[in-house]
Specification:
binds uridine-5'-diphosphate, globular, about 375 residues, alpha/beta, 7-stranded parallel beta sheet, 17 helices
């Protein structure tokens, strides 16, 4: 029997980013993988698990409509108690910055089980944006024993907070995920996506769901998107809407009823990656899409005021558009009208990974657990791409 590693996560993005790691773990003789999902994003989490054939041994199923962050976090923490007692893992892996991440790390600490933090060291420096993620991930950095940072910038953030031991730069596992499932020219399953002409039209992929954009910022974003569709007859906007009612209500009110704006249900990851391959560009407040889209050569306008991903801005793969209508419109118009501006962004090098992050993380776990002599190799975008 190998050392038991329990992965704890509960949201769609965490599942996408942890899935290739879990699959990699199954091929490591010294490690035994135990998966515990919290179910924080129930209906959009399960399709990801199915796609990667992951059957969790523990499912806390904590999703309740409209529950507060305090209730959610405490339910995850309490739900983990029996799971940890039964599984008795040697090591815990948490991912990112959600309520499940914080509660998973804290539960591990209370049981004196070492915690590895995947996607460590992202910071905006603004404790309320993203909310509550900025504080979640900062707290987890001070609970975890091993830190797997996607980039050197993330490692620098940890260093400034005095976290220097067992910190590795690995690249982001989302690049491993996209490389393992992106397929060439498989037809869409969604009839709306099937019906669009990706050669003669400019298909803009939109996602917008972050809590700090709720209310006025989201309304400004949606109004700007509608104005964009009205300004350019060649534009088709595709928006797979997050299930949260605080997103759906304004989206339907401000974007509904336009023949070239397509409001869809959430897409499964494969369909999402197909769309990402074929779209013209992305407008989004999602973190994951900022990392994924550049792998497929698509410019991203980030619909947020702050970013914890400055490497992408620096590399030129994304631009911070904010939430003011005029700036969103002017940046989007430039990318629609100016081929040189478009190709500068589309051709920039993705700073987030080379598809080998999972191997480095598993090497790091094995090294920590004494199953290997050497620490993992480190990711560096210039040497790998
Ligand atoms: N995603 C998806 N279907 C959708 C919208 C997003 O599969 O309809 C994927 C997307 O490709 C990315 C992840 O979900 O991998 C991003 O999740 P989300 O935007 O919820 O969260 P964030 O990245 O901001 O944490």
């Amino acid at each position: 029997m190998g050392k038991k590693v329990m992965s704890i996560f509960g949201t769609r993005p965490a599942a996408i980013k942890m899935a290739p790691l879990l699959l990699g773990m199954e091929r490591r003789e010294g490690l035994e993988s135990v998966c515990c999902v919290t179910g924080q994003h129930r209906e959009i989490l399960d399709p990801v698990l199915r796609l990667f054939h992951i059957q969790p041994q523990f499912d806390l199923n904590v999703m309740e409509p409209g529950q507060s962050l305090s209730v959610l976090t405490s339910r995850v923490l309490a739900g983990l108690e029996p799971a940890l007692e039964r599984a008795k893992p040697d090591f815990i892996l948490v991912h990112g910055d959600t309520a499940s991440t914080l509660a998973g790390a804290l539960a591990g600490f209370y049981h004196q089980i070492p915690v590895g933090h995947v996607e460590a060291g992202l910071r905006t420096g603004n404790r309320y944006a993203p909310f509550p993620e900025e504080v979640n991930r900062t707290l987890v950095s001070h609970i975890a024993s091993v830190h797997f940072c996607p980039t050197a910038v993330n490692r620098g953030n940890l260093r400034r907070e005095g976290v220097e031991q067992d910190v590795y730069v690995t690249g982001n596992t989302v690049i491993d995920a996209i490389q393992s499932i992106v397929e060439k020219d498989i037809p869409f399953t969604d009839p709306c996506l099937q019906g669009l002409n990706y050669d003669s039209r400019k298909v803009l992929l939109v996602t917008c769901h972050r809590r700090e954009n709720y209310g006025a910022p989201m309304e400004r974003i949606f109004s700007a998107l509608r104005a964009l569709a009205e300004r350019y007859p060649e534009v088709e906007l595709v928006y797979p809407m997050h299930p949260a009612p605080a997103v759906r209500r304004p989206a339907e009110r401000l974007l509904g009823g336009h023949p070239r704006i397509h409001l869809l249900e959430p897409l499964d990851v494969q369909e999402m990656y197909r769309l990402l391959r074929r779209c013209y560009m992305v407008l989004s407040d999602s973190g994951g899409l900022q990392e994924e889209a550049p792998s497929l050569g698509k410019p991203v306008l980030v619909l947020r005021e702050d970013t914890e991903r400055p490497e992408a801005v620096e590399a030129g793969t994304v631009k911070l558009a904010g939430t003011q209508g005029e700036r969103i419109l002017s940046l989007a118009s430039e990318l629609i009208e100016s081929p040189p501006a478009y190709s500068r962004m589309a051709k920039a090098v993705n700073p987030y990974g080379d598809g080998q992050a999972c191997g480095r993380i598993l090497d790091g776990v094995e090294f920590y657990l004494g199953l290997r002599d050497r620490p993992p190799g480190q990711f560096s975008p210039s040497s790998s791409l």
